[in-house]
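CO-FOLDING WORKSHEET

Operator: S.A.
Ligand of interest: glutathione
Run index: 393
Mode: holo prediction, single chain
Checklist:
[x] sequence pasted
[x] SMILES validated
[ ] output reviewed
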Amino acid sequence: MPQSRHPQWEPITAYVADMSYFSGKMEAYLRYKEIPFERRVVDSKVMRDEILPATGLMKVPVLQLANGQWLKDTTPMIEWLESSYPDPPVIPKDPVLRFMSKLVEDYADEWCWRAALYWRWQPLESRKLLMRRIGHEVLADFPAPKWLAGWYYGRRQMATYLAGDGMSAATEPHIKQQYLDLLDNMSLILADQPYLLGTHPTLVDIALFGPMFRHYAQDPTPSRVMEERAPAVYAWVGRVWNARAHRLRSEPSLGDFAHPGWEYFLREIAQNYWPFLLSNARAWAAGKSRLDHEAHGVTYENLKVVRYRVYCLEMLQNEYRTLSEPHRKAVDGLLRPYGTLKFIDPLDSGLIDEHHLPLRPGRAQPSALQRFKLGLIGTPWDMPAKPTKRDRP
Ligand SMILES: N[C@@H](CCC(=O)N[C@@H](CS)C(=O)NCC(=O)O)C(=O)O
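OUTPUT RECEIVED:
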């Protein structure tokens, strides 16, 4: 456990997995803020018997406070922790930077996921190693030999997040390219400053650390690419992991997303990610379970409609609406060279309550059979994806 600057703070238990994108994101945040936490590395039994009943999902990271209350989902967790542990802020105070940072966070969480899964599972050397690691580290109680359990899990990830997430001969080169573009544009920014927005780590560093740490810097194939193509990003990964608030001077000097290295991100968000969120939300409202989406001139076919991403859009729209007129103009101005953000009105994912933190106790408990089934298939895409009549606006 990292040394605490605040010995009076009671430690949080962080349930994490060593190979996990979002666990890396959460740990980077807790470590930089010097919030004391006890790491508990989960296996499938802990996921099924403790995390699923407490949070409704078999996903990590989740946090348990000293008083027994639970938190889930890195985006609302960071927002919640920022109000409980405000100093130093990771989410910029300036409303324009705050909105833009949240936009980049969402893009890093949801739109960088497919490529990070691709680079983990598609190259044979990465796939073989990860299948073995997962068999040993996560699936200890799976009713099969570890190699078979790992093989099954890897195949399940590929079926769900590659073949089941629009990967085809047409889209594959673009999925692969995303990683290289991220490296090139992050390198451009990091040539001028130690962190992506300036002198201190902020939400955008924490968010992009998700794909960059546990996948790209650590999985064998992409880590070699990072070492060779983007040593500045390799160094940044170590810098973020090692960052501690008390070691940085108190007044940060932050940029305003005007650095040329941000152009790539703003274009991707305005032209590809935001339109994807809109299509997903429209498909969800229409009761569809699949959608096609065009990006970079190719079509990602038969994508799963994800209710959680309707919630993502709803939260970002709400955030935008809290901005004053001049701040909205500033956000629009940053994005204008690439496009304008359209909005859906009304939009109600019905998931705001579900993500209210700390989680309310007393959720419906899964039966033994449901737990067994979910143990096999996991809870991909933050189920339930398909709206019920009651949910749909
Ligand atoms: N939106 C969630 C996503 C969490 C998530 O997808 N976690 C992955 C690991 S990186 C997981 O636990 N997957 C378990 C599985 O697919 O079975 C967050 O931000 O925390």
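REVIEW:
The CA atoms of residues 288 and 368 lie 30 Å apart.
The radius of gyration is 20 Å.
[x] output reviewed
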